[in-house]
């Protein structure tokens, strides 16, 4: 059981969710590493992808290092509580997952290539956890922004699931759901591992290569 008597590995209902607040968390104007805008509007022609794959500190770094990525940010998505705090998300009473927003230039990097980074950066078979990080906020999820993203995500999940099975892993538990409201996390979480180079950053990747990223967009 989590604090307040809630099970952190069981999704809550909207009625159980914390009330949250009407004011968004303040975030920096610029990405600490890339120097690009953290919040909209983003450059013309860019696209947005959003992924949940465990602790967002290390996972954000994995994406900002990809050529063609314009900016990244961390936040909370997939739950019910408006503008939640990190402490609230950690109780399991908001329903949100720790999420990375990736703004990218589709002329330089495809959504499929970002899916490859997603799959290879965590273990998508663990359900409501990543290693010792246990709770619904650590679940694996793809929040798709279009039908094209949904189709690509479902196709890659099926193909990567076969690869994982060949290496003895269980079924993929990743949620593939429409993107909802993305709530930016607090300032100190943004590009955390750039600000704190020796910060906590567990590696939960399986070591299994994903071939889907080499497919054309």
Question: How would you characterize the overall build of this protein?
Answer:
This protein is α+β, with helices and mostly antiparallel strands and 217 residues long. It has one domain: Peptide Methionine Sulfoxide Reductase, Chain A (2-Layer Sandwich). Helix content is 22%, strand content 18%. The protein has five helices and eight strands, in the order βαβαβαβββαββα. The protein has helices at 56-64, 86-90, 111-120, 147-166, 192-195; strands at 47-53, 69-77, 97-104, 129-130, 133-134, 140-144, 175-178, 183-184. The strands form two sheets. It has a six-stranded mixed beta sheet, covered by helices on one side. It has a two-stranded antiparallel ribbon with strand order 4-5. Helix 3 runs parallel beside helix 4 (147-166). The longest helix is centred in the C-terminal third of the chain and has 20 residues, at 147-166.
Write the layout of secondary structure elements.
Elements: E1 47-53, H1 56-64, E2 69-77, H2 86-90, E3 97-104, H3 111-120, E4 129-130, E5 133-134, E6 140-144, H4 147-166, E7 175-178, E8 183-184, H5 192-195
Parallel strand pairs: 6-7
Antiparallel strand pairs: 1-3, 1-6, 2-3, 2-8, 4-5
Helix pairs in contact: 3-4
Quick overview:
It contains five helices and eight strands, in the order E-H-E-H-E-H-E-E-E-H-E-E-H. By secondary structure, it is an alpha+beta fold. It has one domain: Peptide Methionine Sulfoxide Reductase, Chain A (2-Layer Sandwich).
